[in-house]
Fold:
Amino acid sequence: MATRNKNTQADRIAAICKDELRFGLVGFCAAKQTQHAAALGSWLRAGKHGSMEWFTKNLDLRVDPGKLLPGAQSIILVADVYAPRGDDDAGQPDTPPRAGKIARYARGKDYHGVIKRRLHRLTDTLQGKYRREKFKAFVDTAPILEREHAASAGLGWIGKNTLLIHPEIGSYFLLGGVLTTLKLTPPPEQAVVEDHCGTCTKCIDACPTDAIAPYSVDASRCISEMTIERRGTIPEEFHEPIGDWLFGCDICQEVCPHNSERPEGVEQADILGAYKPRRRAFDVLEVLNWTEDDRREAFTTSAMKRAKLDMMQRNALIVAKNLLKDGDDPALRAGVAEHEIV
Ligand code: B12
Structure:
C-alpha cells in the first residue's frame, strides 16, 4: 500500500509536468552521490574544464545533492525539446549574409527563464501541498550533475559526446529539475535507458578540434567553451576549426545518428513556441561593428547574453577571417582589417 501511494505521488507530479507545464520528458531519481567521482576528479586535474574556473568551486555540493539541499531524497528531472531532429534548414529564419552560426539551443528565448518559470510553478504547487518538505529548482543554476541524474531518471543515456540522448527524441533537449526532501518512488514504467552508442564514433571523428574522447569532452578544446565561456583570447590553432560557429557549436549533435531525420513511426517531439528560432546566425560584419547597446538589444531574453561584447567581437573576427578564405568580400575584409589586433 505504501509503495502504491508513493507511486501515485510521482504519477501526479509527472502529470503536472507533462500536461500542465508541457515538459517533453519527466523522470525521478534518488538524490544520491555521483557514481563517477573519480572520472570527474581526473577531468578536473587534467584541466579539461578549460577556462571554467567556477566549475572547481562547490565540488563537494556538485558530487552530492544531499549537501546542496540537506535531507534531499529525490530529484525530479524534466526536459524541454528545443529543436527537431533532422535538417537544420527546416522552418528556420533566413540566414544573413556573412553568417556566423548560433548553436540551436540559443536561437529562441533563454531556456533558463523558460524552464525555471515553469519549475517554480511546480515547486509552488508542491510546497503548498507538502509544507514541511523542501524544494529547490535548478536549470544550470546549481552545482549539480544534471545529465547523470537525468540518466538515472530514465530520460536518456549519456552518449559518447557526453550529451544525454533519448532513443526517439535525440539530444536536442535541455534539462532542469527540482531537488527535494520528499521521497518519491519512480513510477513502475520508468526504466534506465541503455547505451545505444554502440561502436559509433561519428561525434568523435567529426569534432574539428578533437575535443571528444568516448564519454568525455575536453572543454579546453571545445568550440562551445571557447566561444561562450572563455573570456580571453582563443589560441590560433583553433581559429580555422571554429569555421563559421559564432556562438556555441552543434557538430557533435548534428552528426549523431539519433538526431538524424526521424525514422518512420517516430513522432516528432513537441517544441514550445518559446524555442522558435528568432535567428540562426548573425552577420559577423554587423557584430564587429556592434556597440554595447547593440549587443544588449540583440541579446534581449536570449541565452547568448552570457557572451560579452569583446567575446562576440573576438568570435566574429575569427569567423570573418574563415569566411574570407572561401571568397573575397571587400566590406568584410575592411571590417576585419579595422578590428584586427596588431
Ligand atoms: C560545463 C557545461 C558545459 C561545458 C563542458 C561540457 C561537458 N561535456 O562537460 C561546455 C561549455 C563545453 C558545454 C558545452 C555544451 N553544452 Co553544456 N553544460 C555544462 C554543465 C553546466 C555542466 C556539465 C558537467 O557537469 N560537466 C562535467 C563533466 C565531467 O561531465 P561529464 O563529462 O558529462 O561526466 C559526467 C558523466 O558523463 C559521468 N561519466 C563519467 N565517465 C563516464 C563514462 C560513462 C561510460 C558514462 C555513461 C558516464 C560517465 O560522470 C561525470 C559526472 O556525472 C551542464 C549543466 C549541468 N549543471 O549539468 C550543461 C549541459 C550539459 N550543457 C548542455 C548543452 C546543450 C551544451 C551544448 C550542446 C551547447 C552548444 N550547442 O554549444 C554543448 C555540448 C558540448 C558537449 N558535447 O558536451 C545541456 C545538455 C543537454 C543534454 N541533452 O545532454 C546541459 C545539461 C545544460 C542543460 N541544463 O540542459 N557545456
Remarks:
- The chain has a mean pLDDT of 94.
- The chain has two domains: 2-82+109-180, 202-339.
- The radius of gyration is 21 Å.
- The first strand starts at residue 25 and ends at 30.
